[in-house]
Amino acid sequence: MYLFHLGIDVAKAKLDCALRLPDGKLRHKVVLNTPGGFAELLTWLQKQGAERVHVCMEATGTYWEAVAQCLAAREPLTVSVINPAQIKAFATSQMVRTKTDKVDAKLIAQFCAERQPAAWVAPTPAEQALRALVLRLDALQTMRTQETNRLQVARAAVREGIASHLEWLDQEIERLTQTIRAHIDRDPSLRDKQRLLDSIPGLGERTIAVLLAFYAEPSRFNNARQAVAFAGLDPRQHESGSSVKAKPRLSKVGHAFVRKALYMPAMVTAYRTDWGKRFAARLAAAGKPPMLIIAAVMRKLIHVAYGVLKSGKPFNPALHGA
Q1: Lowest CB count within 10 Å: 150, 155, 217, 253, which one?
Q2: pLDDT tens across 130-142, in order?
Q3: What does the H/E/C string look like for the chain?
């Protein structure tokens, strides 16, 4: 059991910290979200006599990554990174009416003390780099779509500039695609896992890169259901008594980028692959609507990818009715 619990509300420029002492009292500290700020925070913890500390923070964009990696590397500190939706629900359960950085840090510390969330396992440097690359590629592709739409209605005064930007985007997307490919090839672990995922019909090069960026180490999840929940693809039931029985929907309490990346592969799997056609046909025969089938195929792809990576064995069509 940890005697000290540290809640950190992460922002781009600063970290609001609330240290919960063994007697339940709180002490606050604000430091910069920089390596110098991290060192200052560690020094402050020592002055408070806090050695074995359980640290909790929300997964807010990418601002939390540097401090999480720094603190996780310091024994005997334990770091947990939690879904912001959990803190929001916890705040509602505590009837917290005020939202400030200081209040949020206190709330995270209280959540940490009461719920004892699991320790965060830092990704390898190769996984971190791959994650940054695939997120950057997605940003460029989104930008290209926006510029293409603008070009269709642009006036002559700006059309040349948009066309030039599109040309640059095409070149940068191609360069980044080559960089991702080379990055995976250079790392033996990623390369072997890429070959395993490549055995799954319906997954293309870019989707495999995304799955490697977020699921390369399946041991971070206790089971496939947790892997599905990480992407927010788990079903959400809403029933109460005999009068309220809403249709199940995706929870979407998870990584939106992973869901987005799996949509088109699910379409390809459901309509172009033997195993996907059989899976979709069973759902259609049960009366499931098309969009629900696509969501189920997205969920199935994560189940299959998780199983392939965990077992270390390529996709076996016989296990999926193909």
Answers
A1: 155
A2: 999 999 999 999 9
A3: CCCEEEEEEECCCEEEEEEECCCCCEEEEEEECCHHHHHHHHHHHHHCCCCCEEEEEECCCCCCHHHHHHHHCCCCCEEEEECHHHHHHHHHHCCCCCCCHHHHHHHHHHHHHHHCCCCCCCCCHHHHHHHHHHHHHHHHHHHHHHHHHHHHHCCHHHHHHHHHHHHHHHHHHHHHHHHHHHHHHHCHHHHHHHHHHHCCCCCCHHHHHHHHHHHCCHHHCCCHHHHHHHCCCCEEEEEECCCEEEEEEECCCCCHHHHHHHHHHHHHHHHHCHHHHHHHHHHHHCCCCHHHHHHHHHHHHHHHHHHHHHHCCCCCHHHHCC
